[in-house]
Design goal:
Pnp Oxidase, Chain A, seven-stranded antiparallel beta sheet, four-stranded antiparallel beta sheet, 11 strands, alpha+beta, 6 helices
Length: 227
Amino acid sequence: MSQLDVQRQSETAFVPTARTTVKRVPQRANYDREMVYSILDEGLVCHIGFVIEGLPSVIPTAYGRIDDVLYIHGSPASRMLRAVQGGVDVCITVTLIDGLVLARSAFHHSLNYRSVVIYGQAKLVSDTAEKNEALRAFTEHVVPGRWVDVRPPSRTELAGTLVLALPLVEVSAKVRTGPPIDDEADQQLPVWAGVIPLQTVAAPPIDDPLLDSGLTAPDYVLSYSRP
């Protein structure tokens, strides 16, 4: 493959590394950037794995994405953020469950899913403009359209918020779709098999009891759904 081909491939797909190459059921691997972005943009929570003083930890947290950078944020007192900003290697995962796969045998039950695994080192965001943009991305990631309606962070709130940026370089996705895969000998068993689809569905919004009379939920709240 020529250097030009490698460059073109890197523009549309993440280049697999020793850490991101999917070894278990490799046919489910996906390195396409748009696939990775779609999973990250649909998810709401990531899990951050790291090791401090020889002890492993995995912490769930919200996140936001701007192009090829994933942002996480929280209190400066957060043990996780203080550790991660110190340059330790992290592994971040996001998983979406699309269905329960019921096979004819217990062994072949599975899930339809889309997942992303990210490796790297996060860096502290100190630039005020980037920090503000990251906080906007967090808000818009959860509820698109919300940022323009709310009061922006004050200087005190900005100072009291730690924001870390993780470049998306070592990344892979893994996806399972379709019906169960039973052994041929089991396919005639008189047992129902198939998929129970799952999705995240928003219920009708509930007004804050302290809401001023006359204020109604905006359209982006009333019609809220995940991507």
